[in-house]
Specification:
Number of strands: 11
Order of helices and strands: EEEHEHHEHEEEHHEHEHHHHEHHHHHHHH
Distance between the termini: 26 Å
Number of domains: 3
Helix content: 40-55%
Strand order of the largest sheet: 8-7-6-9-11-10
CATH topology of the largest domain: Nucleotidyltransferase, domain 5
Pfam family, one: Ppx-GppA
CATH superfamily of the largest domain: Exopolyphosphatase. Domain 2
Structural class: alpha/beta
Domain Ppx/GppA phosphatase N-terminal: 20-287
Strand content: 15-25%
Radius of gyration: 22 Å
Protein name: Ppx/GppA phosphatase
Oligomer: single chain
Shape: globular
Largest sheet: 6 strands, mixed
Length: 419
């Protein structure tokens, strides 16, 4: 069954289409986006401009045709900071509901933060830390302890809002600090972020470093890199930034403010690196609650992949590989490779490698997926140092190749499957 979540944001409107699995998880099957900038010029008590509303009506009419053509009946349209800030927010939500055919619900800042945090908790291996989502009009910061959502904070520190109102680096930094310094003092073990500008920054850094992953989920950026990039971006014109790989013209307007928010968060929490989550509020809307352990969370994503492939989850193979190797990543590689084998792939190990580096696979850090992918690759051909470099990871190739041999032997031992 397909379900859609539509994010009517301060900067853009995005339709995301998902397919649900029986265990409550899902996979993305498509998306559409338009930079309508509903929040452009909106501050506390201002109004969403008529021209922006007209553009949004046009976009949502297009979305409606797509949804009706696909027979999607479960749709969640969520209005965020632009609607909360604007004096005519509720009126605009009603107008846009008519264009779309489903009621636009204005979510509170706290609910937006909760949904964003839920998506990260259930897709990134985190136990304790701080999760933030940076949008065009607002910033949500959530404290997490024992994989449970704690206090949620919402600030009017969206990237588009900051760049339009504050304009200069000094004024933007001062505005950011005036809000962030009200947060409780804590040195969290991890900092996880989501949002369009952060994804664009991660894509740029991955391209610069020639990392071959297609998606940024689970990618980790050092604090030093963020600070250096902030200085670089503020020395460039918007036109120059728009030509950077992964950024583009639309993000060039907002990425300079976004990098300052990210840098100030890193400084505040004194973390060595930032982890990027590709899942945010839209995905969180489809989740019921926090998975209580990382292994259980990962297991659900693996089981969903198996279900979408039409194959019963090969849990026994996963268990046997882990017993022989002591490596949960080798066990997960065996799980995926066996699913591909039962699905009819002539080289299930290469299929596993290609899928992991090309597709969004939640539940792991990107470097963990890198090792998993190379364990699959090593079952077909010997893994070399350059293979690690292509995926932006470090490690011992002899250890990876050893894990590959054991994993391959187990998978090949059960050509008809074992459960």
């Amino acid at each position: 069954m397909e379900v859609s979540v539509i994010d009517l944001g301060y900067n853009s409107i995005r339709l995301s289409l998902f397919q649900r699995s029986s265990n409550g998880n899902f996979r993305s099957v498509g998306s559409m986006k338009d930079f309508t900038r509903l929040g452009d010029g909106v501050d506390e008590g201002g109004e969403i401009k008529e021209g922006r509303v007209n553009e949004a009506e046009r976009v949502l009419s297009t979305f409606r045709k797509v949804l009706e053509k696909r027979g999607v009946s479960e749709v969640f349209p969520l209005g965020t900071s632009a609607f909360r800030l604007a004096r005519n927010g509720e009126e605009v939500a009603k107008r846009l509901s008519k264009s779309l055919g489903w009621d636009v619900i204005i979510v509170s800042g706290e609910e937006e933060g909760r949904l964003s945090a839920l998506a990260s908790i259930n897709s990134v291996p985190i136990t304790d830390g701080v999760i933030f989502e940076l949008g065009g009009g607002s910033l949500e910061v959530t404290y997490v302890s024992g994989r449970e959502i704690g206090k949620i904070y919402n600030f009017p520190l969206g990237a588009l809002r900051l760049i339009k109102i504050m304009k200069t680096e000094d004024r933007i930094r001062k505005e950011i600090r005036s809000y962030l310094y009200s947060l409780p003092s804590w040195l969290p073990p991890s900092l996880i972020g989501s949002g369009g500008n952060l994804r664009a920054i991660a894509k740029f850094l991955m391209k610069v470093n020639k990392v071959k992953f297609k998606h940024v989920h689970g990618y980790q950026v050092s604090s030093a890199t963020i600070k250096s990039l902030a200085r670089t971006l503020w020395s460039m014109r918007d036109e120059e930034i728009s030509r950077l790989p992964g950024i583009g013209e639309q993000r060039s307007v907002t990425v300079k403010a976004a990098i300052l928010v990210i840098e100030e968060l890193i400084n505040l929490y004194d973390v060595p690196y930032l982890t990027v989550s590709e899942l945010g509020m839209r995905e969180g809307k489809l989740m019921k609650g926090e998975e209580l352990s990382v292994p259980k969370m990962r297991g659900k994503w693996l089981d969903s992949f198996s279900e979408f492939s039409g194959v019963q989850p090969p849990e026994s193979i996963r268990f046997e590989v882990e017993k022989l190797t002591g490596s949960d990543l080798a066990a997960d590689a065996g799980f995926l490779a066996h699913v591909f084998m039962e699905s009819g792939w002539s080289d299930p190990f290469n299929a596993c490698y290609q899928y992991v580096i090309q597709s969004l696979f939640p539940g792991f850090l990107q470097r963990e997926l890198g090792y998993l992918a190379l364990i699959c690759k090593g079952a077909t051909e010997k893994v070399k140092k350059k293979d690690l470099q292509r995926l932006g990871i470090e490690g011992r190739t002899d250890k990876i190749n050893q894990l590959s041999r054991v994993m391959k032997k187990v998978v090949k031992s059960y050509p008809l499957g074992v459960y």
